Give the backbone structure.
Amino acid sequence: MQNLQWMLAVSLVVISAVGCDGAAGIPSAQPASQPADSDALSAAAATIPPVPETLTAAAVEFVAPSLTAEEIRAGWISLFDGQSLFGWDVPTVTNWHVEDGTIVADRGEKSLLLTPFHFDDFELRCSFHVAAGGNSGIFLRTAQNATNPAKDTYELNICDSHPTHKTGSLVGRHIAENVPAVEGAWHDFRVVCNGPVIQVWLDEKQIVDFTDSSDAVRLTGRIGLQMNEGRSAFRNVFIRPLSLKPLFNGNDTAGWSVVPGSKSEFNVVDGRLHVSNGPGFLETNDTFGDFVLKMEARVNGDGLNGGVFFRAKQGTEKTPSHGYEFQLHNGVKNGDRTKPVDSGTGAIFRRVAARYVVANDHEFLTAVLVAQGDRFASWVNGYQVVNWQDTRTPNDNPREGRRLDPGHISLQGHDPTTDLDYRSIEIHPLLPPQ
């Protein structure tokens, strides 16, 4: 039965469906070899190709993240949907799978289940369970092929029997003292990585306050869940990107410019940026390449359409919106939220549809978009709806091909019926992968 569960879970990861125009292809695998012995060596396992598209409607069983409304507004997002390994790079050498709403690995070679993105400053929460005598960990700001824990990662160890760096320690870097045994029961880590400072809490008690002043300080990297020895299980995996700065100041449109030829109106009313009429665009004066974008938006009419363009070329009257588009449209077909109208909120329009329509018209939503290199992911109210890799040929215009260069953020007034409000818009430029 366990083998069957594993096969079903892996099958969910690789199911994909084409976005609204079928332009995106399935990316190739990212092969990597298994390194020699070290606790940190598991990041290099071969992975299943990252999921570029939305799951089919039949495969999506929506489970709302266990986040409060305040946490969602603060930017917390779930890295695990409770049902599948959607959004992760999955090693093939280990039986990573989902059982009873929990990520589990208990057979195969040691490996890391990795995020496709490199995060720099963040707060992370994760519940974990490791079998008695087992060895696991959470890798912070890790390289994909981490061969030396003192240089390539911050390995937050989960191993009561480790000879030098027991549970709560950062292997090869910092020893946590007076940490109770954790094996055989569920426990909770909370981690803050902010610049060179790493802080860790175990079951709400702080056990690590470490500032890395070494030459091997890591300021960015992936998040990895490790299976080293014995059964490892994880649930409630949440992350909150830190260091976001406002693009909208709540008072006026300073830092933004209306694209020539726009018919839309962009007015600040009661601290909110209101968009009406259209078509038209309001774009940032600054440009952004790799970033985390968080916004609170509301569609004020049934089935209305809008969007936020990014990595966009500077708009002109003739070409106002040559960029990738984060879609805002909460419509669904026949009441089925797995069947979005016009790709759905959180989609990268014309590239990949949202796998589930989370938000409702007339209610504020919180959206988080991560763009890093050719990888893109979006969350709506904490739930991941897109995980996509742009494998098209390079092109300065994202409508025509893959653009990695920085571009403008541009708010769209779609048509004369447009009626949107933005309560906040924040961004954090991500550091280059280390």
The first helix runs from residue 2 to 14. Residues 2-241 form a domain with the Jelly Rolls fold (CATH 2.60.120.560). The two ends are 41 Å apart (CA to CA).
